[in-house]
Write a structure and sequence with these properties.
The complex is a heterotrimer of chains A (about 350), B (about 375) and C (about 130). With about 375 residues, chain B is an alpha/beta fold. Chain B is built from 15 helices and 11 strands. The longest helix of chain B has 16 residues. By secondary structure, chain C is mainly beta. Helix content of chain C is about 10%, strand content about 45%. The chains are: A alpha/beta (about 350), B alpha/beta (about 375), C mainly beta (about 130).
Chain lengths: ~350, ~375, ~130
């Protein structure tokens, strides 16, 4: 049996409301909130970045993994589109921080919002093939939304970490499927600070096509139908897309609910479906099957079917629950402070 | 060990001295000391300077300043102990004469802090703290003393009023010192409404950035007598260090290095604090003065603030502290401060302090306490007039 | 800041590695060659705990250049649950709401950003303990 042996998330404390952003750009807040099904998003302070969020998420994953000695982690993969360095891995810092160095493989992944699920796929594969004992996969971001652009309302920050292994499994990986084509719906050229996107082109030919493609393929592969799953977690660029794809595929609101965090979290990009999965695991029961389908622009989706084991009852509260990190002890920011935190204000070098 | 006396003192005006370089400032003070002493040669010279390197890119100050002082081939050196560099220079000179190694030694101090801008000065000063575990994490000097202030207030109930009393007193004294950087009085309200730097310390709780120099000439008592100078003997010298990082110390409401250095000085002098008439102490921040007075045994732990508030350390009080105006009003050119404190002690013992700040009680024994960083090093000297 | 200076402190700043004197049990952070308490020269590696209590703090309003964007920020000294004391910034907290005695947790944070092109410095900060 191979699967998740430890999981954890980390979300920063600050938030900004849709109204606060809308008023600066003269947009109609109620229609954005309704259209995107989004109320607010998380904002990282300048001392938080993908590396720091990854370290904290990993510490939570290690707590749930029990007596795991970090030196037994054979690989660390971090997927993000906001790695702090363009050249120098995020993974090396995290590995040092948790004491997993030096006998460890490391690579940073990118594929827009599915970089986190890629890391999960690869870590899983290495454990399954017997190459490594434990693999650490992290999806996290502190992504930028261009000022005044639709994506500014949703681009947020957060990370989730998964330790894959074959001992003390919390959720077994039953099936995986990846579906990918070259579809330039959203991209960022080198040296550009903000990404670009194709507006409505990011919908049907991008998010929906690939999510659908991976979901249908994995359900066919596994012989499972939507009603066979306890829960489903989709990539959540806003509140609306996951609800819509869920409906299109035949899932109920109740199945989507526990992993549907975007209305108050925003889009944590590479962290999106991974963090959604941690929130779902937090409330799952032994025997539950969970379908997770990520989506990354460019474009592609990674699908996983997880089956929760008895061990979830022992470990779920060994670290803080994701919903608690999302809902409690939060501070709202005004746009000015948000812009300062997100380095959107031009200063002297 | 021979008896050592201070026979000459010299000091420059402290302040932002744009038109003078570090060399100019030091030589000015040094020549004044030589003239005051009436000596015709020096055997050696020790200069205290915290960091000519970080402020103006200049090290090798012993040689540079001996050269500019016109002292050919002099045995000259620079010593460093952060803000206690001047006191350390004085001690080294004392040891050199007392041991018989030299007869006439100059001890001086100098700092040129304004050729670098505020940010640069802050960076240079931070070198006196633990660079990797205090400064790296965002600690500043006012911040470190503020941490001590908060701890002292929590433990002993020291109040904002008490801190203000120290600033007001020192400015009152400094207003009569023609060499002071800020020779004007301040009010309690003025102190308490000044810009907050690191809570609870406001800008008027903090000593300034200053250019300045001071120098003294030490020699044997025999030579002093031949020069016809008043005999101001160095009867005690104490030197101690403490753990550099505040968080490493057991109790940050007291300054251990001050206590140990003072004990050593008193032992050498065969005196106690009760025998001392006044002192110059290192008031880099108002809270520092309060804690130092407790640590040196003048007031009981926790009672330093109350004593300041009651006026016990004023010119007319039971134990005047910082008749010069202290670092607060006189200024704090880091390396020079220790030497400047000795200049004031000597002036008071000679009866030569300017304007109204000369103590009218005919003081016989004076003390100088010079501290580096957040108390990581301390030099204490006790001088007595014959 | 030059990379070697940052890199050398990683074991202390990233994972709070400390040394426990094999003779008297004194804990030194960072590592030292000789115990400041008893003079013994052998240490056992330990990791510092991540919770503690704030003993003193100050809100820095006039910040050095590396931290001007963060002003006002608070620094404090906390006593960790094993008695070791550390100085760090206090993050995720309204500076006006900090109190001596407050319980804190240690979180991994980016402590300094060296302009647009320098090496990033990571380390520890205190956050109020809320879970």
């Amino acid at each position: 049996m191979v699967g998740i042996v430890g999981y954890g998330a980390h979300i920063p404390r600050h938030r900004i409301k849709v109204e606060e952003i809308a008023k600066v750009w003269g947009a109609d807040a109620p229609s954005y909130k309704k259209g995107l099904m989004l109320r607010e998003k998380s904002v990282p302070t300048p001392d938080c970045d993908t590396i720091t969020l990854s370290v904290e998420a990993t510490k939570n994953a290690l707590k749930r993994a029990g007596n795991l000695d970090p030196v037994e982690i054979g690989a660390i993969y971090i997927g993000s589109e906001s790695h702090p360095y363009a050249v120098k891995p995020s993974g090396t810092v995290v590995a040092e921080a948790i004491g997993a160095v030096p006998d460890i493989h490391c690579a940073d992944y990118e594929f827009a919002c599915k970089a986190g699920s890629e890391a999960m796929f690869v870590a899983l594969g290495l454990v399954k093939s017997g190459y490594i004992k434990y693999g650490l996969a992290i999806g996290g971001d502190t992504s930028q939304g261009a000022p005044g652009d639709a994506l500014e309302y949703s681009a947020s920050a957060g990370a989730a970490a998964f330790i894959m292994g074959s001992e003390n499994v919390i959720a077994e990986a039953l099936y995986t499927h990846s579906f990918m084509t070259d579809t330039p719906d959203f991209w960022r050229r080198e040296y550009q600070f903000y990404p670009q996107h194709g507006g409505r082109f990011t919908g049907e030919p991008a998010y929906f096509k690939h999510t659908m493609g991976a979901a249908n393929a994995i359900m066919e592969k596994s012989g499972m139908k939507p009603q066979d799953f306890a829960y489903v977690v989709f990539h959540q660029p806003n509140g609306k897309f996951p609800q819509r794809i869920g409906k299109m595929l035949g899932f109920t609101k109740e199945q989507i609910e526990p992993g549907w965090l975007s209305p108050t979290l925003g889009n944590t990009y590479s962290g999106a479906s991974p963090i959604g999965l941690t929130a779902t695991l937090d409330i799952s029961k032994p025997g539950d099957t969970i379908l997770m389908v990520s989506y990354g622009s460019g474009a592609g989706s990674d699908a996983f079917i997880w089956k929760v084991t008895e061990r979830i009852n022992d470990v779920r509260d060994r670290a803080v629950r994701t919903r608690k990190l999302l809902d409690e002890n939060i501070t709202y920011l005004d746009y000015g402070t948000y812009a300062k935190f997100r380095h959107k204000i031009r200063k002297n070098d | 060990m021979r008896d050592v006396a201070v026979v000459g003192v010299g000091i420059t005006k402290f302040g932002e001295i744009w038109e003078k370089s570090l060399r100019d400032i030091y030589v000015e003070a040094a020549l004044a000391a030589i003239d005051d002493a009436g000596v015709d040669h020096l055997d050696s010279m020790t200069v205290g300077c915290m960091t000519g390197g970080l402020f103006i890119g200049q090290e090798h100050l012993g040689s540079l300043l001996a050269d500019y002082l016109g002292q050919k081939n002099l045995a000259a050196s620079r010593v460093e102990s952060a803000c206690a560099s001047g006191g350390l220079a004085f001690r080294n000179a004392f040891i050199e004469v007392a041991s018989g190694m030299s007869d006439i030694v100059m001890a001086g101090g100098v700092e040129k802090m304004t050729d670098i801008g505020g940010d640069g000065a802050t960076y240079a000063l931070a070198a006196a703290a633990d660079q990797e575990y205090e400064v790296f994490n965002g600690a500043t000097f006012p911040g470190l003393y503020a941490l001590m202030a908060v701890a002292h207030m929590e433990k002993y109930g020291t109040t904002r009023d008490m801190l203000s009393a120290v600033a007001v007193k020192n400015h009152h004294n400094g207003s009569m010192n023609p060499y002071a950087q800020y020779p004007f009085k301040v009010t309690k309200e003025g102190v308490e409404s000044s810009v907050m730097v690191a809570s609870p310390l406001r800008i008027l709780d903090c000593s300034p950035i200053t250019d300045g120099a001071a120098a003294v000439i030490l020699t044997t008592v025999d030579i002093a007598k031949k020069l016809g100078k008043p005999i101001i003997k160095i009867i005690g010298s104490g030197h101690a260090t403490d753990m550099i990082a505040l968080h490493s110390r057991d109790d940050i409401t007291t300054l251990k290095a001050t206590t140990v250095a003072a004990e050593k000085a008193f032992k050498m002098a065969n005196k106690t604090i009760k025998d001392v008439d006044f002192a110059e102490v290192h008031d880099c921040f108002t809270i520092a003065e309060i804690i130092v007075t407790e640590s040196m045994g003048l007031f009981a732990p926790g009672k330093g603030g109350e004593a300041a508030l009651k006026g016990e350390t004023s010119l007319e009080g039971s134990f005047p502290i910082n008749t010069s105006g202290g670092l607060k009003s006189k200024g704090h050119p880091v390396g020079a401060t220790g030497a400047a404190q000795i200049v004031e002690v000597v002036k008071q013992l000679r009866g030569e302090a300017e304007n109204g700040r000369q103590l009218k009680t005919n003081p016989k024994v004076g003390m100088a306490q010079n501290m580096g960083g957040s108390g990581g090093s301390t030099l204490v000297h006790i001088l007595e007039v014959d | 800041m030059f990379p070697s200076r940052i890199w050398r402190e990683a074991k202390h700043r990233y994972r709070l590695e400390a040394g426990k004197c094999k003779k008297c049990g004194k804990i030194v952070f960072p590592y030292r060659l000789i115990c400041p308490e008893c003079g013994h020269r052998e240490f056992e590696k330990i990791i510092l705990p991540d919770t503690g209590k704030l003993m003193t703090y100050s809100v820095i309003r006039v910040a050095p250049s590396q931290f001007t964007d963060e002003a006002p920020y608070a620094i404090g000294i906390a006593e960790l649950s094993n008695g070791v004391k550390l100085l760090a910034q206090i993050a995720d907290c309204d500076v006006d709401k900090i109190k001596v005695g407050m319980e804190i947790r240690i979180e991994f944070r980016r402590v300094q950003t060296d302009s647009h092109h320098g090496v990033l410095s990571y380390g520890y900060k205190f956050v109020p303990k809320w879970y």
